[in-house]
User: Fold these one by one.
Assistant:
Number 1:
Amino acid sequence: MASRPTRLPDGTRILDAIGVGVLSKTYSLSKIKEVLRTTKKASIRERRMPAHVVVYYVMALALCSRMASQEVLCWLLEGIRWLLQGGEYETTSKSGIVQARQRLGWEPLQQLYEEVVHPIAEKQTRGAWYRGWRLVAIDGSTMSVADTAENEQAWGRAGNQREKAAYPCLRFVSLVETGTHVLFATALGGYHDSEITLAEALMGQLRAGMLCLADRQFLGYKLWKRARASGADLLWRAKNSPAWTASSGCPTGVT
């Protein structure tokens, strides 16, 4: 039996073209350049790694977290050369990669996320719907970041009475579409910030027609009231024996 071809006629690996194609379909080149202009991060002069390539590179790093940074760049550029037809993009050194990412900063990535990422489930998507409601959930977690003085000052570090953790750590809370696992709204904070405080910033992203699920640590009058004001329906867990009193402000619908 003949083996299946793994490369396109010009030598590009098929998987590379597909991977970059998925990125470019979700985040179009025109949209990325628009965000770069808005955030004043567009490349002024021609570089080995222009700003729009760096944006794709940062996203590729998240998809290929087990690969070395230069390997990810080679993978990305091979696909981009085929996809954009005619772009003369070259690999660069590790220091060049660092400088390119520093020039880009975080602002374009945040704006791109806020403008593009949204619930994507269709009617036939399994696990995304319940009796006409779009199922979403709110939850939080932590993530280790690079061990730098700047990150420790910005995010903090876990520890106990004996020693500190090896890496600084940030805390995040997200709204996620359960059927697709798309995190369509996220709030970042320091390790010692409360998930409840971070969650308050996300309630405005809920919409009528959604059924929001949450664990019992999120149940409280202030957050419940803000979530209800969005028009979404809520299904939040509670402790076995909550001590609701008239002064505590029991959420509407909780008994």
Number 2:
Amino acid sequence: MIDFGLGALPYCSFSHNDGRRRLGVGAGTGIVDVDGLARRGAISSIDPRILTRGRLNPLLAAGRPVWEALHEELSVIIREHLDTAIPQDQTAMHLAWDVGDFVDFYSSRYHAENLGRLFRPDTDPLLPNWLHLPVGYHGRAGTVVVSGTPIRRPSGQRRTPDGEIAFGPSVRLDIELELGFVLGGPTKLGEPVPIAAAAEHLFGVVLVNDWSARDIQAWEYVPLGPFLGKSFATSVSAWVIPMQTLAAARIQGPAQTEPRPLSYLRTEEPWAFDLDLEIWMRPSGVDTSTRIATVNTAKAIYWNAAQQLAHLTVNGATVRPGDLFGSGTISGPVQSQSGSLLELTWAGRDPVDVGGTLRTFLEDGDEITLRGRAGGGDVPLGPVAGKVVSSRERQFQEETL
């Protein structure tokens, strides 16, 4: 169980004895049934019907004034209803909202430079566009799953070391430690969201593990980018931390002076976040988890959330309630601060010791948990966990061309 204290007010979707999905808010190690409070008339700041659908989407659509009014009221009435809180371990957790579009960015400079050194060692590690815009791609919203969902090893084509083309389960299954942003406040087609309006659409934060099949990805991504190697599963926390909770963790990010961003990407507001993130692994057959990496997001993310949103919509693309975008893998300046096994093991050259078990990439039965805290440790982020299970590839005949 996670002890959120009484100040975090993270939203979730849960079910209890009757199996019905309900909206809740974390309080200590329990969940206060916000759905029930709304039905009983205990919440007066907003239309109670917004809170009785079992998902956050109606609240996301209601807009920032409603978000803030509800947050302020909940900060008071949650304390009055602590005696009704349901212990977290007596509930089933669900994805807190129906995900609309999903975009994944590539906004950690250290991560981008690490991959450049790995794959293009004789050139500048950053591609020419990287310092000018937040590089990203559109992912697959239908495979965004809640923490705890088993992750089935994907199958696909890969190129073997001897140059043959093989089909079968990925043998280089990896993780990506990311920060995700849940969006609300819809826009119209053709209307960009300027940085000054970012707060009208950024509802909250989740931890994200964007699982990656590196061998499938390496063979397929040229020239159009990620496809099957990235679309099979993206795990997110069951808990959405509202932006109001993270206000004290907002800080200025890395300087962007060489080059200076174009005007639509410039911001003076502190849109970086001071968050301490961790990767934990429990290898198959091992009883305990081991922390294998830590990173702070303050300087590790070059392009911030407001810039990502501005770039995402600058061509007129819409924002819909429930859209999600990820920061991309977050890595720091040293290898122990890597947000992926690809970097942590330097593409398998340096296996990582996980409590006496060596790993380069993930094996069946391995379990990964991402954790985080904000505000100097006072506010926990909801963890995101996933266990790798064997591929369904037995249905298919493995091929080598």
Number 3:
Amino acid sequence: MQDVAVIDDPIAAGVSLDPIRARLLAELVQPGSASSLAPVVGLTRQKVNYHLRALEQHGLIELVEERRKGNMTERVLRAAAAYVISPSVLSALAPDPGREPDKLSAYWLLALGSRTVAELGELLARSARAGRPLATFAADAEVEFASAGDRAAFAVELAAAVEALVAKYHHGGAPGGRTHRLVVGLHPKITAPEVDADATPRTPGT
């Protein structure tokens, strides 16, 4: 699996969100050069080089190799990771999961997810600086409910199971103990593209 990095610097986030640079980042999942990318994005090699330098300056791409090509040196680059932008980039606007928590609110679930991205980004940076691995766990599953009643019953049982496990393993103030955050979420799966009123298919969120 490709490494995932969290962008928490506002300037780097702006660089990555520029449409041309975002396209270059996507293309550089596989190594490429300004010469190979120019016809793909419809720009001159010089303009592509300009954008690549900006991406490299902020650590979003990395040099793979340099090779001679005629009378010039071609730099082959690739994306340093797959990227997620931390909500901390817009800290004043980041959702606060501590504000009016509601277990049945999609907005609260979104706020919890945003906090997870921000906290994991910082934890990954700290663990890298310390040269120590970060202990985490995640589970992902799909369940198809026969009815809304089954979904509600599942949520009740899941909450009870989580509360029982927390009660069993939580030891507040234990010497050498470390608090961990647990987030469990349930939401519908997107199974088809959204269709406009004129029946023109479009991807969700566009």
Number 4:
Amino acid sequence: MHLKWIEDFIAYAETRSFTRAAQQRNVTHPAFGRRIKALEGWVGVPLIDRGSFPSTLTPEGERFLEVATLVAGELTDVRSDLRRRRTRDGQVATFATGRTLARTLFPILHAKLGLARPKAQLRLLTTTVHDGLIMLADDAVDLLMCYAGQGASIDVDEAEYERALIASEALVAVATAEFSGSMPALDKGRTPVRILAYSDHMALGRVMRGAIARSPLNGRSDVVFETDMAEALHDAALQGLGLAWLPQRLVAADIDAGRLVRIDTPVGDIPLEIRFYRKRRNRGRAVQAVWQGFLEAAAGL
């Protein structure tokens, strides 16, 4: 059972409308209905009488609503209190980003932030884009930095969220020199090419697969390894297991040292944006210091 199911149920009880409650909870109508069904499955009895119009709560639903309201309220209060303590009453900004950006761009920006604003206090969490957006919406984090590109758009309410373009990035095709020498011609023929790929649910995975699908390599990709970690893909490329598209900042040192070489493919470099998000109403001193400090640091890259 998830807390969001209880919050969904309370939203329905307040509006007595699946459509308005779904809008209030920022989910689609079908998804909202499935979550209510899941809650009823967990409770074991119907909570909403769908035989009447408009639908109403069953007697069991009325009883459950009393407890649900109390539980949700207490959990929200406890969560807010614990978060305030963790962030030392707003003196620490909580920052979320992916593992790759935590290794590549974040340390550079953080170092510049420390020089310009030595009193700025920051807590870093690594997560996926999807989970990071959920945490941002739930106020579990104050700031989010993530990749975006064609096939991996991020749809947020511009009235509620502020975003900034931090930097440009590219996925570049790399492999070991030994693997490169054994590859079939990439600009002609139909021989499969051994590809190292991101999982489909990753933003980088959707960007990479979309770019390949639009290129002459479409239909020739023999995915021999798939992972949800760019670092694991990086390691596989260093092992000579296949051709990989990796963030340029992640492989720059390997290219300079000759451990990996750039491969000229029909796909070319795949452009990415690195974006910064926060809620517009989140104007605490710590959050403002980190937001502005990172924008200034990024301007000097």
